[in-house]
């Protein structure tokens, strides 16, 4: 506020700050996280170097250090070997792990990154990269329109603080608040609100269940700018080999999580043992039914794909048409069963008990 009072508001300064906030945020989420830590896609050297540049500008360590710690986080999540273990409390997972450093980084899990000369250069000369990319460049740009000091205050100091907090919230908030959509036993949660400020990283339960997928927000309406950037660059030929988990694996994981959630709720009904056993039996049959329809859809989908690849003669065309009809019918059967399943999952335990007993399978 004092700077604005003395020097006035500047649209170029606001644009520079916004650009650097987005670019350095993407350097972390797209570069450090999805490219270097998880290898969810491959990138052209131009893209890779740009991500290294803006990742360094975020002042969150080198790509190798960041990736090594993050891989340990996934491998040893919620244990003492997890660098930002949520079991030690919100503050520790948020930023206390940096203040009370207890993690030993031996880099034995990043040998693949050590084969990349530019990644190694950034690691060896990280301070140089960070100062050039994160301080000197924005200040010089700010100086061109008479706001060098403003660029240092907003495009450097303020921007670094905001990007820091956004990154930290993924390790803390997204391991405490939200829904366990795909893995009911994980502390990682899907939190759409945090996705708004973290370039889509808030869908954390999905990410911990499927870390090799280049997407975090897997649904079409999920806010995931990192996913959109990677896919957009793929259309330009600048990224490729984008890894996606099969829709059938995703649906199976979601169904499993919902089944565990309701089964645990039904445990609360054990006061009336006979009723509990009856409800549990009906619920199990419903789960097996929807899983069977999912498996059948997957089988018919794969048969249809095989028929599409066979374009030898007219008989193969008839086979393709027949396979497509079966695939669509199987998909429709699954959607119908899944619609009833989702309605049951939304019921509270007592409502669910009445619903299942009144409408047995």
Q: Cα-atom Rg, whole angstroms?
A: 25 Å
The tally of domains stands at 2
Q: In order across it, which strands form the biggest sheet?
A: 1-2
Helix content: 55-70%
The geometry reads as: globular
Reported for the largest beta sheet, the result is:
2 strands, antiparallel
Global structural class: mainly alpha
Number of helices: 15
What letter string, H or E per element, gives the SSE order? Answer: HHEHHHHHHHHHEHHHH
Number of strands: 2
In what range is the share of β-strand residues? under 5%
Point out poorly predicted stretches: none
Overall mean pLDDT stands at 90
Please name the defining characteristics of this protein:
two-stranded antiparallel sheet, mainly alpha, 15 helices, 1% strand, 361 residues, 2 domains
Summarize the structure.
The protein contains 15 helices and two strands. The protein has 361 residues and is mainly α. The termini are far apart.
How would you describe this structure to a colleague?
The protein is globular. The chain has a two-stranded antiparallel ribbon. The chain is mainly alpha-helical and 361 residues long. 66% of the residues lie in helices and 1% in strands. It starts with a helix and ends with a helix. The protein folds into two domains: 2-240, no CATH class; 247-358.
């Amino acid at each position: 506020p004092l700077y604005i009072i003395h020097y006035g508001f500047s649209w170029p300064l606001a644009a520079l700050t916004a650009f650097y906030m987005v670019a350095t945020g993407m350097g972390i989420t797209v570069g450090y996280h999805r490219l270097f830590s998880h290898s969810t896609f491959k990138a052209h050297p131009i893209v890779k170097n740009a991500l290294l540049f803006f990742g360094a500008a975020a002042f969150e360590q080198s790509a190798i250090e960041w990736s090594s710690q993050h891989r340990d986080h996934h491998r040893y999540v919620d244990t003492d070997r997890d660098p930002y273990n949520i079991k030690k409390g919100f503050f520790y997972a948020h930023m206390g792990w940096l203040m009370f450093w207890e993690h030993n980084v031996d880099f034995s899990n990043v040998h693949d990154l050590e084969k990349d000369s530019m990644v190694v250069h950034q690691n060896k000369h990280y301070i140089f990269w960070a100062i050039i990319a994160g301080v000197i460049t924005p200040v010089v740009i700010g100086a061109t329109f008479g706001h060098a000091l403003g660029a240092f205050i907003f495009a450097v100091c303020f921007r670094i603080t905001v990007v820091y907090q956004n990154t930290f919230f993924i390790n803390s908030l997204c391991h405490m608040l939200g829904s366990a959509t795909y893995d009911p036993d994980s502390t990682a949660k899907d939190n759409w609100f945090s996705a708004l400020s973290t370039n889509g990283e808030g869908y954390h339960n999905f990410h911990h269940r499927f870390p090799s997928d280049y997407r975090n927000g897997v649904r079409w309406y999920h806010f995931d700018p990192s996913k959109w950037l990677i896919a957009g660059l793929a259309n330009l030929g600048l990224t490729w080999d984008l890894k996606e988990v099969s829709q059938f694996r995703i649906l199976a994981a979601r169904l499993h999580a919902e089944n565990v959630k309701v089964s645990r709720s039904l445990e609360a009904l054990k006061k009336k043992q006979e009723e509990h056993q009856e409800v549990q039996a009906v619920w199990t049959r419903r789960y097996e039914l929807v899983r069977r329809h999912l498996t059948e859809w997957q089988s018919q989908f794969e048969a249809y794909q095989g028929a599409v690849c066979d374009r030898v003669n007219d008989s193969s065309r008839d086979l393709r048409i027949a396979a497509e009809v079966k695939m669509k019918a199987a998909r429709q059967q699954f959607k119908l069963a899944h619609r009833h399943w989702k309605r049951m999952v939304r019921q509270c335990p007592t409502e669910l008990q009445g619903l299942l007993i009144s409408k047995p399978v």
